[in-house]
Amino acid sequence: MPAVDPTRASTLPDDVVADIPGLVTQLANLLVGRRVVALTGAGCSTESGIPDYRGPGTRERARNPVQYRAFVGDPVARQRYWARSMIGWPRFSAARPNGGHHALAQLERAGALRRVITQNVDRLHHAAGNADVIELHGALAEVVCLDCGALEPRESLQARLTLLNPRWDEAALEGVELAPDGDAELTAVDGFRVADCLACGGVLKPRVVFFGENVPRPTVDAAFAQVDAAEALLVVGTSLTVYSGLRFVRRAAERGIPVAICNLGPTRGDPLATLRVDAPLGVVLPALVAALS
């Protein structure tokens, strides 16, 4: 059975640690020799310091993310979003891939993983080395003008926001909690100035799918095509609470494609799972790489 790194497993209960090698062996046996597609969620990035929405401890920090309709129609909602985003961006963009990300990249390089479909907007799969990632919800690394469609790098916008709001630097707001979607837990935003599109002066929006907004149809179709061509679906770090991810698990199950779920805590896809692994991804995925090597 594959060894479990004791330094990574040191904070886990003894019974959980004891179960991991056997579960990893079952997982490896399920995936070996099959065309595997991975579906990943926020739990894949918590070990990189990016909080999730529905993982362990979420109840203590429950929050209401910005809604698409409010962002588009309410200047105050946009002001609040961009103020929070300006504070959260430096720490969000500084996040680095963890052992789970690197393990998935290793599996892809070894030919054991065909494609990653992610619900995450942090581009940590790219940073770890995954070559071709389907981003269901887009990426915070870019912003788009809702009026003319022009794109701007998020780093460029950050520089403009900082010039417009010199007193809103991160040092002055040290200790503000980072939020799951790259912004920060900030309430007072009076006086914050929002940057406009450089090309036309229009409204800028992060190039991500907000709550209440639909995933673009071409992106959904591309993801379905990958699931349909797969021989196993590996679900990593998502509770599958929202339909945008759950639909792919349902599709796999309908087509008789085995589904393996690796996540801390229960998921909506558990009844459809062939195998369920409830353990930290930074422990399980590197052990899976070793098992499949």
Report on the structure:
The protein has 10 helices and 9 strands. The strands form 2 sheets. Strands 3-2-1-7-8-9 form a 6-stranded parallel beta sheet, with helices on both faces. The protein has a 3-stranded antiparallel beta sheet with strand order 5-4-6. The model is unreliable at 1-15 and 58-62 (pLDDT under 50). The radius of gyration is 20 Å and the shape is elongated. The chain has one domain (6-292): Rossmann fold, CATH 3.40.50. A hairpin with a 5-residue loop joins strand 4 and strand 5. It has helices spanning 6-9, 14-31, 68-73, 75-94, 99-109, 124-128, 154-164, 217-229, 243-254, 281-292, and strands at 36-40, 115-118, 133-135, 138-145, 151-153, 204-208, 232-236, 259-262, 275-277. It is 38% helix and 14% strand. It is α/β, with parallel strands linked by helices.
> How far is the N terminus from the C terminus?
12 Å
Shape: elongated
Low-confidence stretches: 1-15, 58-62
Biggest sheet, in brief? 6 strands, parallel
The total beta strand count reads 9
> What is the radius of gyration?
20 Å
CATH architecture: 3-Layer(aba) Sandwich
Identify the CATH class. Answer: Alpha Beta
Number of helices: 10
The CATH topology turns out to be Rossmann fold
Mean pLDDT: 87
Spatial order of the strands in the main sheet? Answer: 3-2-1-7-8-9
Give the CATH superfamily. Answer: TPP-binding domain
Strand content: 5-15%
Topology order in helix (H) and strand (E) letters? HHEHHHEHEEEHEHEHEEH
